[in-house]
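Bumping with the actual sequence this time:
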Amino acid sequence: MARAIVYTEIGSPDVLRLADIPDPVAGPGEVVVRIEAAGVNPLDAKLRGGKRPSPPITEPRRLGLDGAGVVESIGDGVTEFAVGDRVAIGSTNGTYATHVTAKVENLDLLPDAVTAAEGASLSIPIGTAYQCLRSLNVGEGDILLVHAGSGAVGQAAVQFAVAAGAKVVATGSPARHEQLRELGAIPVAYGDGLADRVRAAVDGDITVALDCIGTDEAINTSLELIEDRERIATIVRGPDAASFGIRAFSGGSPKPLTDQELAWRAEAVGVAIKLLAAGEFQVELGIELPLAEAARAHELIEAHAARGKITLIP
């Protein structure tokens, strides 16, 4: 039988357990993937802990939305993939497992130059960053301010913006400044006087901002620097973004993504894979843990105690 991480009640990481599950079967337009790495996202911990709305649990619930592995079987009508193909998986519930069934539209081919851990690190953070920049129309001539540029979404946003021809200023702790420079950003430290430091960092006005941290400092600094609030977005402060007159993507936003925004998120993984294979994009990988240690992974992510993307290895 296959195995997967499940939980039967909302609670601390201790509610997670490794259980036997029926071997998945590919239906029409689906494939079964043998998981080689599953990405751990903050959203996973929020769902497990009840910090995101979800229906009552009536049967063991699976976790994980991102992963990478090898196609083991295909369903009727599948022509895009073949048994043995390496794939990255996104938007597929239950990737904390040895095997998962995935729809073909949620898969991207993974070349040999991209590792399984890299492939499992893409969908949520990469898709979020890419869609936000496309929605904000970031491009040549812009000066973008990224709050929390050293996080997974922030790092992707910096790289996509630089590739689009924008200048980037990114906030981060001093220990992360050299990394931000390597990604193409001008780093500035958090704390009192942030707006003045941002102004001094570049020759020109900040034209657009992406908040990836959700602090009052980040929101207020963006409002101080940018007059057009349609070009300020947050991925954290969804519930109260409207009170500031700014845009919200993810982070509990009451406004669903448009079809175009969803399409951009789906497009992002393929774009990132090509750049990774060409050596033109970086994904910061963190520790790898056995699948059975999913609870430890959640403890680390909730304590902000892990640098880089945590992956679970079956």
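The tokens above came from a reply further down the thread. The longest strand covers residues 30-39.
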